[in-house]
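Q&A log
Question type: sequence-to-structure
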Amino acid sequence: STLLASSAASDVYKRQAYYYPKTAKDLMLAQMLHQSTMNLLSIPDRGVRSGHLYVNVNTQMPSVLMEMGYISNPHRVQMLTSNWGPKSIAKSLFKGLVDYFAAI
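Response status: OK
Response body:
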């Protein structure tokens, strides 16, 4: 149980992309956003996962929920409240969207 608690605590440092496969392009969008954040940000990773999340299930267009960490993590709060953090996240997501629209 100590290993599980340690593993769960370390997950607050990590990024993750959630999608729901309602269209043929949901996974593709998730992979491209995920890859772009992998390339441009140094946040540990939990990968791309399918999940039955309201925000993804209840849209008709391809959608992805990107988790970039949790505000319960002091390192992530520091990043999100810095001058460079939100800009870096936005640039990485923008790059992923450009790649996605270029591919479709």
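Response note: The longest helix spans residues 85-103.
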